[in-house]
Prior knowledge:
Blueprint: H1 3-10, H2 12-24, H3 33-45, H4 49-66, H5 73-87, E1 101-106, H6 113-126, E2 131-136, H7 141-154, E3 157-160, H8 167-181, E4 185-190, H9 200-215, E5 221-227, H10 233-245, E6 249-253, H11 262-271, E7 275-279, E8 287-289, H12 292-300, H13 309-316
Helix pairs in contact: 1-12, 2-3, 3-4, 4-5, 4-11, 5-12, 6-7, 8-9, 9-10, 10-11
The chain binds guanosine-5'-diphosphate and magnesium ion.
Amino acid sequence: MSWLSRLRSSLGRARESFSAVTRLGRSERPLTPAFWDELEETLILADFGVPATEKILTGLQTVARQEEWKTVDRPVARFRKDVERFLTLPGGELALDRTPAVLLLVGVNGSGKTTTIGKLAMRFRREGKRVLLVAGDTFRAAAAEQLGVWAEHSGSAIVRGAEGADPASVVFDGLRAAKARGVDIVLVDTAGRLQTKTNLMEELKKIRRVIDRELGEPPAETLLVVDGTNGQNAISQARLFHAATELTGIIMTKLDSTAKGGVLIAIVDALETPIKFVGLGEGPEDLRPFVPAEFIDALFDEDQNAIPLAQRRESVI
Length: 317
Ligand SMILES: Nc1nc2c(ncn2[C@@H]2O[C@H](COP(=O)(O)OP(=O)(O)O)[C@@H](O)[C@H]2O)c(=O)[nH]1
Ligand SMILES: [Mg+2]
């Protein structure tokens, strides 16, 4: 199966949400206030969230007035472009232009940090880079073991501390080791518990300070790993992490699962931070760089044979 058809089939649930919008514009029925209500409801149901939904609606209504649109196919066709515009922010590629390039991954428990680090390690190793993993989640011994499996699998070095050790000191040791061994890329795993006495955000800020001090500059990337199935809950969490660690990018996981897709737009809009990778499964190959145009095609395009060409042309105007 080609990559694009795999992407398409992985995005099943999200594609359903987006085709609900496309279906609204199938006919050339008159553009009435009721249509705007329907569109609003469809976007909210697809996890766009209120702020992004309002921005999209206001934008479409403004053009509708200016260009005197009479039928619903017009806003629906333009919606696709709006989504692409929302998702296309500068800096979508990883910044790896320094040695070592330190990538700090943060996010709540279960969002997919450790798995994503494993997948990234596999990718960088395939490119022939020297990689070191830092087990900054010292809260549970199992976390470092899980990372150890990925280190072995990918052929990366690993630095880990004792269970309960200060994560910032493990990161410090990791950076020293990386410099001593001439490592190209350092991937730092962190804890994600939100409900304990020790404040996770303070811990992450301390890790950031250690990295800044050791490198003399911020980490190359501070990436928030978000579970795409968490819907709007993900947004408030994301704001907390952004405030504590100054994110440079987002990795959205589990888009192969029940994620409705609109949350991609909601989070980029809320944080003004680009999505850099998406997770489409649990395997080592299931992490892809996020390319907005490709993604939009996978979300919106119907099966080539399912609808007549004339109609297809209309839907991409
Ligand atoms: N379906 C799916 N599962 C994923 C994806 N990424 C991670 N997972 C799974 O999510 C669970 C939690 O992942 P983990 O990396 O341990 O999360 P962490 O607590 O943030 O480190 C594991 O069972 C992973 O296999 C993804 O893109 N798709
Ligand atoms: Mg973990």
